[in-house]
Each structure stands twice: as C-alpha cells, then as structure tokens.
Specification:
The protein is mainly α. About 65% of the residues lie in helices and about 0% in strands. The protein has a two-stranded antiparallel sheet with strand order 1-2. A hairpin with a 5-residue loop joins strand 1 and strand 2.
C-alpha cells in the first residue's frame, strides 16, 4: 500500500476549500482502515480480505490505460525495409574455413545412425538389396520388362546403388536444419553444414554399397572396364543435383513442416519415372519385337516427349549412365548427360544463393 498522505490543515468553515480537502482525506483514511480489518460473525476483528483487491485497484490507478496508436498516427515513419546483399564468395570462404566442423557433423551422424545397431553399417545396403530382390521378382519375372541382356539382379542393382545415395541424401538433408534447431539458435556457423553433412554421411553408405555391387558384378562375370573411368564424372553430376535439391528441401522444411511427409512420396514417384527398375528403352525406345509376345513393344513416350524425356528428367541420363558404365562397360550418353550436368550446376548455384539469402532467418522461425 502507498504511504498515507499528509493531513491538510483543518478548517472550521464548511464552505472553505480547505474543509473539502480535509473531508476527502478523512473519507479515504477511513476506507483504507476498513480495508485491512473486517468484523467477523462473532464480532472479532480479523485481517481484511479485500487487501488484494485494493492493491489491484491502486495499480490500475497508477498505470494509465493508453490506447495504442496506429502507424498513421505516429509522428515519424518507420525506415523502409532493407535488402541485404548475399555474398556467395564470402559464404564459400566461410564454409571452407569450417570444413572440420562439417567432418565432425558427418562423424556424429554416422555414430547416431548406427548406435546400438547390431548389424551396424550393414543397414546401408539392406534397402537397395531388398529393392533388388523385389524388382527381380516383380519386374524381372512377372512383368518381364527386360534387362538389356544382363542378369536382372546386376541390371537393377547397378542403378539402385546411386538411387539410394540420392534418396538418403535428400531424406537426411530435409530434417537437417530442423533437427539441429538448438545449435542454430545458439551458435553462429554456416547453416548449409547440416545439409552437406547429410550428403557426405550418405556417401559413406554409398561406398559400402559399391563394394557389394562390384562383388555382384564379378559373380555374374562382369569385370572392370575402361569405361569405369567415367564413373567420377557421372557421380559429380549426381552430387551437384543432390546439393541443389537438398538445400531447397532443407530450407523449405523450416517454414513448411509438411515437406517431411511430401518428400518420401515424391521420391516414390521419381523412382518409377526414372529408369531404375526398367531399361530406358521402355520409356523412349523404338518399337521392337520380343520373343513370346505377338505385339511389338514400344516406348511409353513418343514424338517430342520421347526426345525431351532425358532432358526434362536429369535423373534419367544419370541413372542410365551409371548402368552403362558399371554393368555394360560402355561410355555414358554424353549429350543427355551434359544437359543434366548443366541443369544440375545451374540448379545448385541458384539453390545455394537462395539458401544463403534466407538462412539468416532460420533462428527466428524454428
């Protein structure tokens, strides 16, 4: 309670100003005195129950209620919204300076992924092997889509290994920023580290799967050829595409969490729209007769769409390039692969620029 006011000088004249002031002072003093004690049913004096209400009334009287002012009523106007430039060169130098942090996150991801797992890194090859078995039964035995003269397990696994690299990288990068929200809110570092660490950790799984692929090819009598020197080129094109898609997926997930549920569905659609389980001739190939069938088999796409398929879907020439290099011992089709490389490079640069433009707001959103 606020201290009592000093009593004004008394006056015996009822009409004088001092008399009115004294009368108001007496009324307030009596009210405050009655507030601290009340009379019970038995006539005993007890602490007042209205003390809290009086204190709240005093606070409301002290703190004035001011109507908020609109922007139009302000005397000054807020400054215009500023657009800060995005310096990609500085961002790349900062990323290179923190390369050890990237490797640390890769090691952490691998440890967490296979922690308390009895089979350990064997799980990295379980998914492509199981898909190979399913595709061998469904597409090889039942649908008989063909395997371009190769044993179907080797035919399908040669494309399933890079496909698993692509899907796992996108999956880990999608939740990379959201899953490390506590670090982003406290520590300054390049935010693209989380997407890149997911890609590099998936690359370790890809290396394990490649060993299994080489053993499988040797089992079917397919040995290394000169065309294998083109494998780094095809892998580099796939890496550029993965980086671009991963950065976009990680940034969009920060603002729209539905992306975590939409990405797996999109990957399933792309799996059947890309020549992984079937030869690319089933999509764009000319009509040809197949033994045991009366009608010739033609590609699904014709005309303009058949010519533009490998250019509209960059994954198609990439997966076909892996299969031609590893299983057939042939050089990839350079024209579609070159277009895929150009699209992947432009997409990667544009995605990185856009990612660095908005990553400064991640800490405010997550």
């Amino acid at each position: 309670m606020e201290p009592p006011e000093e009593r004004p000088p008394s006056s015996n004249e009822p009409d004088s100003p001092d008399f009115d002031v004294e009368r108001r002072w007496v009324k307030r003093a009596n009210r405050d005195a009655d507030a601290f004690v009340t009379v019970g049913d038995d006539g005993a004096r007890s602490p007042g129950e209205d003390e809290q209400l009086i204190e709240e009334e005093r606070l409301h009287r002290v703190i004035p209620r001011v109507k908020p002012r609109t922007t139009e009523e302000l005397e000054t106007q807020p400054p215009p919204k500023q657009h800060y430039p995005t310096h990609v060169g500085e961002a790349l130098r900062e990323l290179w300076a923190t390369r050890e942090v990237v490797l640390t996150f890769v090691e952490r991801d691998l440890r967490v992924r296979y922690k308390q797992a009895a089979l350990g890194a064997f799980w990295a090859i379980v998914q492509p092997i199981m898909l190979m078995v399913i595709f061998s039964v469904v597409f090889g035995k039942i649908a008989k889509v063909g395997s371009e003269g190769l044993p179907y397990p080797a035919f399908s696994y040669a494309a399933l290994v890079p496909w698993s690299l692509f899907t796992s990288s996108i999956s880990y990068a999608t939740s990379g920023v959201v899953g490390n929200s506590a670090i982003i809110r406290k520590i300054h570092m390049p935010r693209e580290i989380f997407a890149l660490s997911g890609i590099l950790s998936s690359g370790v799984d890809y290396a394990v799967s490649m060993v299994i692929l080489i053993v499988m090819l040797a089992f079917y009598g397919i040995y290394p050829a000169v065309s294998w020197i083109a494998l780094p080129v095809v892998l580099a094109v796939l890496a550029m595409l993965m980086i671009g898609v991963s950065l976009v997926a990680a940034a969009v997930t920060v603002y729209f969490r539905d992306t975590r549920y939409g990405i797996p569905l999109l990957m399933q659609i792309l799996l059947y729209a890309t020549p992984v389980a079937y030869p690319i001739s089933k999509m764009v190939g000319p009509c040809e007769r197949v033994a045991g069938l009366t009608q010739p088999q033609c590609g699904v796409l014709h005309g303009f769409w058949a010519d533009a398929y490998q250019f509209l879907n960059p994954l198609a020439p990439i997966m076909n390039g892996f299969r031609r290099v590893m299983a057939h011992g042939q050089w990839p089709e350079w024209s579609p692969l070159g277009v895929a490389a150009g699209v992947s490079f432009v997409g990667m640069c544009g995605a990185y620029w856009w990612y660095k433009r908005i990553d400064r707001t991640f800490a405010d959103v997550i």
